């Protein structure tokens, strides 16, 4: 099996996610980008698992999916709370705390 | 692939089980009317049980759950620091507006969840448990930061922490994936043999993995240049949670940092040592310079925490038994120093309209000497003045650095300490100098706006605030004058890795 293509794809996904977090302004899109980064990790884990020939990486990837789901739930909950307070849903306008 | 049933050592797992059961009990207590108000008491009971079970396991190192976790003196010591901090946090949260808005049971259950993550993280010696534990620690904290729903800053800090924290986790995970690809193992011991087998610089996978894991951990421990979130999140979160985050998160993250680098990556110490040393030096400079000129005390302590993280990273850089001992000693001392300061900040936040602004401390020495002394001791100890635990801690760190030929980093610690006097002494001076023109009462910041928390003019006399402040300050001085008990504690923790 040729591992390089999987690693190239996963690093592209990771980079897309990281760039998205830096340049997109909506918290929703930022959450999506975080998911993209975690899933890039998952793809790498599964690909490496095939490469090295043991299953630990696949087990790890399943555990990561659970964790990623938890993170999204909390993120969406916070976004709803901010929406209810009628605060602007734009990370640039959230500047009560000076960066 | 066949699954083998792991042998479970229930005695070793008992602290984790106690915390998990306690978490559920505290959460359920919120739905039964007769016990609804008892969540803080129950939480303290659970923490005390877990601490008792940990002390019972002290001095009996063993692998748990097929080597996924390891309970040894290092993990017990760090878990005890985390539990102690959580206990202080429960006391400081009494009558905190955030607990009312989030619900007493939920607030305390989340706190226990975070403590559970910290205990697991201190014990983790497998990449999977490492990742799960660091998320178990972080996810409840994201919510706890946002619990003061009435304050805009609290929600904002929760979201900010979530984004930055998850970015750190994702980077860490990606690093772990590469490390697994390079060494074919998720066990720390297996990674160590894998690296020793190949030689780190020969394999780009391992090198990328180590670099990304270091970045992810640097996010979690707020080491510069990955620190930008720290002052913001510290300022926005409810203050008892800030104190918990500042102390316990740092202790747990450093525990896994030291285990990961000294055990899993131990064979190739020469390659990562200089990189971490540079990070430590940058942290010391950025933290200390950033703290100068901060008016918000929580931001000031946030920046000071970045600098202190730089000092503590020195204990990992040296990768020796004395380094780990110095790190554990410093973490314990750091807990006492910071808790004393935060208890006073919380008391003043509730009784003055200034929030955590440095103006809240004006004339404190004359008005509330029982609050002024703990804060003075804490500031002097953080600056590293003799006869405090902070001084002994820095001494051990510098000694460990000099032993392993990192004298230049020791010099950085000394220079950082000198800069830090500039902002710590400013707080002390504000407290003890007579206020000009009587105590100022005009609320200049958000104090009078409707979203501000109610003011309790007696907060500075309440036993549940003054007591912890005095206790933590007394411990700071005690371990500065008679460091022997704490040194033995730290030395046993340090010897468990080497």
Give a concise summary.
The complex is a heterodimer of chains A (99) and B (498). With 99 residues, chain A is an all-alpha fold.
Explain what you see.
The complex is a heterodimer of chains A (99) and B (498). Chain A is 76% helix and 0% strand. The longest helix of chain A has 29 residues, at 56-84. Chain A is built from 3 helices and no strands. The radius of gyration of chain A is 17 Å and the shape is elongated. Chain A has 99 residues and is mostly helical. Chain B is mainly α. Chain B has 2 domains: 11-164 and 230-262, no CATH class; 270-498, no CATH class. Chain B has helices spanning 10-29, 39-57, 73-92, 97-102, 104-123, 127-145, 152-183, 188-198, 204-220, 229-236, 239-264, 269-291, 297-317, 321-351, 364-367, 369-383, 389-403, 407-432, 463-481, 484-495; strands at residues 62-64, 69-71. The two termini of chain B are 34 Å apart.
Q: Percent helix among the residues of chain A?
A: over 70%
Mean pLDDT of chain A: 88
Total helical segments of chain B: 20
Number of strands of chain A: 0
Show unreliable segments of chain B.
442-450
Summarize model confidence as the mean pLDDT of chain B: 90
Gap between N and C termini of chain B, in Å?
A: 34 Å
What's the oligomerization state? heterodimer
| Counted beta strands of chain B | 2
Write down the overall geometry of chain B: globular
């Amino acid at each position: 099996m040729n591992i390089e293509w999987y690693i190239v794809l996963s690093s592209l996904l990771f980079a897309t996610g990281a760039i998205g977090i830096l340049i997109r302004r909506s918290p929703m899109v930022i959450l999506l980008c975080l998911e993209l980064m975690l899933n890039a990790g998952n793809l790498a884990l599964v690909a490496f698992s095939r490469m090295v020939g043991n299953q630990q990486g696949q087990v790890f990837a399943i555990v990561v999916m659970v964790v990623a789901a938890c993170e999204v739930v909390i993120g969406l909950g916070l976004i709803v709370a901010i929406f209810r307070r009628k605060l602007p849903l734009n990370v640039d306008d959230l500047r009560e705390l000076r960066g | 692939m066949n699954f083998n049933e792991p042998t479970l050592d229930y005695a070793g797992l008992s602290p984790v089980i106690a915390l998990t059961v306690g978490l559920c009990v505290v959460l359920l207590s919120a739905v039964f009317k007769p016990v609804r108000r008892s969540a803080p008491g129950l939480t303290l009971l659970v923490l005390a049980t877990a601490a008792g079970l940990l002390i019972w396991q002290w001095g009996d190192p063993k692998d748990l759950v097929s080597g996924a976790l390891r309970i040894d003196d290092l993990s017990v010591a760090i878990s005890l620091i985390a539990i102690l901090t959580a206990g202080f946090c429960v006391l400081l949260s009494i009558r905190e507006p955030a607990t009312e808005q989030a619900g007493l049971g939920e607030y305390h259950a989340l706190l226990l969840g975070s403590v559970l993550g910290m205990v697991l993280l201190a014990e983790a010696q497998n990449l999977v448990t490492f990742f799960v534990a660091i998320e178990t620690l972080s996810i409840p904290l994201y919510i706890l930061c946002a619990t003061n729903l009435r304050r805009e800053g609290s929600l904002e800090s929760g979201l900010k922490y979530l984004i930055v924290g998850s970015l750190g986790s994702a980077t860490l995970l990606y690093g772990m994936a590469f490390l697994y690809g390079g060494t074919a193992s998720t066990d720390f011991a297996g990674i160590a043999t894998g690296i020793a087998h190949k030689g780190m610089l020969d394999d780009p996978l391992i090198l990328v993995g180590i670099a990304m894991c270091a970045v992810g951990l640097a996010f979690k421990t707020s080491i510069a240049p990955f620190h930008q979130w720290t002052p913001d999140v510290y300022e926005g979160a409810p203050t008892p949670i800030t104190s918990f985050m500042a102390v316990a998160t740092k202790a747990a993250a450093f525990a896994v940092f030291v285990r990961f680098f000294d055990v899993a990556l131990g064979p190739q110490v020469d390659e990562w040592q200089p990189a971490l040393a540079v990070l430590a030096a940058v942290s010391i400079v950025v933290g200390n310079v950033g703290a100068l000129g901060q008016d918000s005390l929580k931001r000031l302590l946030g920046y000071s925490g970045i600098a202190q993280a730089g000092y503590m990273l020195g204990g990992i850089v040296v990768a020796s038994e004395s380094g780990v001992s110095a790190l554990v000693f410093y973490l314990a001392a750091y807990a006492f120093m910071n808790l004393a300061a935060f208890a006073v900040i919380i008391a003043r936040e509730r009784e003055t309209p200034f929030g955590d602004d440095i103006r809240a401390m004006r004339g404190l020495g004359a008005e509330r000497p029982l609050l002024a002394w703990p804060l003075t001791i804490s500031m002097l100890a953080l600056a590293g003045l003799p006869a405090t635990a902070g001084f002994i801690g820095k001494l051990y760190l510098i000694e460990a650095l000099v032993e392993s030929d990192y004298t230049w980093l020791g010099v950085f610690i000394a220079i950082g300490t000198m800069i830090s006097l500039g902002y710590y002494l400013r707080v002390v001076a504000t407290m003890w100098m007579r206020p000009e023109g009587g105590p100022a009462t005009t609320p200049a910041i958000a104090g009078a706006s409707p979203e501000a928390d109610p003011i309790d003019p007696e907060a500075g006399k309440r036993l549940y605030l003054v007591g912890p402040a005095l206790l933590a300050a007394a411990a700071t001085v005690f371990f500065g004058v008679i460091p022997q008990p704490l040194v033995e504690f730290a030395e046993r923790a340090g010897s468990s890795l080497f």
